[in-house]
Amino acid sequence: MPFHCKLSLYKHPRSGITIVELVVVIAILGILLALLLPAIQSSRVKAMEAVCKNNLHQLNLAMGQFCQATHELPVPVAPGQIGGWKVAIMPYLEQGNFRNTIPAGASVTDAPKEIYSQPIIMRCPVRARLTQKTTAAVESAHYVLVPDGGRDSFMLFDAPVDLEVPWLSGPEMDYGAIVARQGPHHDGFFYASGGQQGISFMLHGERVLTNR
Predict the structure, then answer these.
(1) What is the domain range of residue 143?
(2) What are phi and psi of 173, to 5 degrees?
(3) Which of 66, 86, 111, 107 is nearest to 172 (CA)?
(4) What is the pTM of this model?
(5) What is the pLDDT of residues 142-186, one digit of tens each?
(6) Residues 61, 67: contact at Cβ < 8 Å?
(7) Fewest CB atoms less than 10 Å from the CB: which of 52, 122, 139, 142?
């Protein structure tokens, strides 16, 4: 009598995922990433704007202290010369040691490389992204002083995006000239008014927001 061996089929457990499943997972991740990126980018921009507003606040306080001590605004310098308001207020920003390395009155072209970069407190991260960085030149100013006609009061503004003036020269601008230009924050400017609290936002010459 023949012997019949009944074989049972053994199915090996499947390992890994199929190509179709992999494609589905990648597609889902792509959708999630597309949804998250705008929020991440928005948070990043807001963080950089917060740094810029804090810088303006600190610069405004330092300028106020300088004016209280000297009863006048810092003396402006000729184009291409080292000096002006940014150099003058350094001791009030805990930058006295850095100030001692700056040859005030000399030509910007003669500035040592050690002072090409401006202090962090004078650098706007949003403005920095709009400026082509080079190690062969002094950094452009990210903030400008806007004095009134009699130099009895002042405002501090973001520098217009097309302004390429060395920070070592402490650039100044007339109010009418600056508001007619494009700012680095959604085409507008953050600014601080001397002696007043808070940072305001101006777009097309109109104040649209005040941040206390």
Answers:
(1) 20-211
(2) -140, 155
(3) 86
(4) 0.78
(5) 999 999 878 989 999 999 999 999 999 999 999 999 989 999 998
(6) no
(7) 139
pLDDT in tens, 6-56: 545 555 555 567 887 788 888 888 888 777 777 667 678 788 899 999 999
- 14 domain residue, yes or no: no
Identify any residues that bridge with 210 across adjacent strands, giving them in sequence order: 200
In-domain check, residue 179: yes
The DSSP-derived string for 35-47 is HHHHHHHHHHHHH
Per-residue DSSP letters for 71-106? SSPPPP--TTBS-SHHHHTGGGGT-HHHHTTS-TTS
Residue 11 domain-assigned? no
Identify the sign of the CA torsion 79, 189, 153, 85: negative
Q: How many domains does the chain have?
A: 1
Question: Quick check: is 182 in a domain?
Answer: yes
